[in-house]
Amino acid sequence: MSFAHNLETILRFENVTLELGDGDSRVRPLDSVSLEIARSEFVGVVGPSGAGKSTLLAVAGALQSPDSGSVRVLDQELTEMAGSQGKMAKFRLRNIGFVFQSGNLIPALNSADQLRLMNRLAGGSSSFDPMPFLEAVDMAHKAKNLPRQLSGGERQRVGIARALVTRPGLLLVDEPTAALDRARSQQVVALLAEQSKTHGVAVMMVTHDHEVLGHCDRVLEMVDGRLGTFQPATT
Ligand SMILES: Nc1ncnc2c1ncn2[C@@H]1O[C@H](COP(=O)(O)OP(=O)(O)OP(=O)(O)O)[C@@H](O)[C@H]1O
């Protein structure tokens, strides 16, 4: 892989602002936010509750449109698609993977079928084989288990495999360790870091868990809708 290829920008925010609510309760969860995340880069986002982190993920994931500014994912300006929910949904399905708190798996489907469904929704090949994806997260032996037959960490690993089925350029991760103990948290975030390098995915992970930040290439901090470099407290 060439150096130039490594530095390809996958996600770019330029001066993105979004206000929500009305009257006295009006808030600005995104206030002139600019950021760039390159292919294979794993970026953590921390910050106090209500700072705008989930909103940042929603806008990056084409789930919410900003009031102003530019949001590019790969070569697509998301704000240009804002008028068409259909286009947005299609683009999202093909290019953006999501991983949520507890894996967000469908209760009635086993691990392999979670991945098969994702492949089908994205219009993938009918000969799709979920096993290499499950092997990559060390879950091939639980391919036939339902989510309720898996531990929290295992559910999270299946969720990561499922998010990678469509080979997205961008992976958006929201509090992946919220339901996990310390050891499992480290495992899951190490896995995300590894997968970002193997698949060349740009990963943006929102977390309150400062113990996993060592796996990130870079950490940003959101405070009152503004994004800056995270300065860990030195006590
Ligand atoms: N639909 C909405 N209407 C009005 N205000 C909203 C809406 N969604 C979020 N907010 C407000 O926007 C601000 C940012 O919310 P957001 O969920 O992005 O914060 P967060 O950093 O993810 O918080 P947490 O760490 O608690 O999840 C908060 O003040 C929240 O109350």
Reconstruct the topology from this structure.
Elements: H1 3-6, E1 9-20, E2 27-38, E3 42-46, H2 53-60, E4 68-73, E5 76-77, H3 85-95, E6 96-99, H4 111-121, H5 131-136, H6 152-164, E7 170-174, H7 182-199, E8 202-206, E9 218-223, E10 226-229
Parallel strand pairs: 3-8, 3-9, 6-7, 7-8
Antiparallel strand pairs: 1-2, 1-4, 4-5, 9-10
Helix pairs in contact: 4-6, 6-7
The protein binds adenosine-5'-triphosphate.
Keywords: ATP-binding, Nucleotide-binding, Transport
Protein name: ABC transporter ATP-binding protein
Domain ABC transporter: 11-235
Mean of residue pLDDT values: 90
- Assign the structural class, choosing from mainly alpha, mainly beta, alpha/beta, alpha+beta, or little secondary structure: alpha/beta
Largest sheet: 6 strands, mixed
Helix content: 25-40%
CATH class: Alpha Beta
Keywords: ATP-binding, Nucleotide-binding, Transport
Domain ABC transporter: 11-235
Organism: Leucobacter muris
Protein name: ABC transporter ATP-binding protein
Give short descriptive properties of this protein.
235 residues, alpha/beta, Rossmann fold, 4-stranded antiparallel sheet, 30% helix, 26% strand, binds adenosine-5'-triphosphate, ABC_transporter-like_ATP-bd
